[in-house]
What does this fold into?
Amino acid sequence: MSKLIAAVDDEEDILEALSLKLEKEHYKFKGFTDAEKLFSFLTKNSPDLFILDIMLPDVDGFDICKELRKNANFARTPIIFLSAKSDELDKVLGLELGADDYITKPFSPKELSARVKAVFRRCSNDKETLPTQVPNNEIKIDKEAREVFSDGKKINLTLIEFKILELLIGKKNKVFTRDEILDSVWGKDKAIIDRTVDVHIKNIRDKIGNNGKRIKNIRSIGYKFED
It folds into this structure.
């Protein structure tokens, strides 16, 4: 069954280019020029991936991302930002809000297609390698349902955040370098920007509350989850 990709961009020629490329790759595509039209569409449809511009006429892409991540139906749906804003701070903010990738304009349709495939591949690999539950003191990871509970509360993590936490908890007290985390989670598909790992670690710490203190920063090396 073809995956559905929804995109929001106020430039209709961008939406047309996305439509031509992604439909050629056998995806279903639906483009919108503003956030209101997207959210109206979402009342009856559930895309498999979102592509969001940042500078929009009504609500900007960052705010759309926030709303999607607060919605249980889309909390884990992959999001790619596609924006003319190329400043590193914008890229970091996009990651902090839970995006899976960030592509700057002008972009190559071929590159975008490769990034889309990479995101879907990571999702697929995650589902294919899910074993049973792994309890860990006050944190429980249910790999089969891809759910995390911290102090009895269900925590909504993005796919990337989940895989990083799973890696750290899987080998408690082992120090993982940033490169090891990148290789394990992103593999050959990684599109690295400075602070990528640090941004996701910060998100995880914030979301899991008191247990966030157990993720230790080993200066100049990386991170470990302390037993």
User: Anything to note?
Assistant: Residues 109-128 form the longest helix (20 residues).
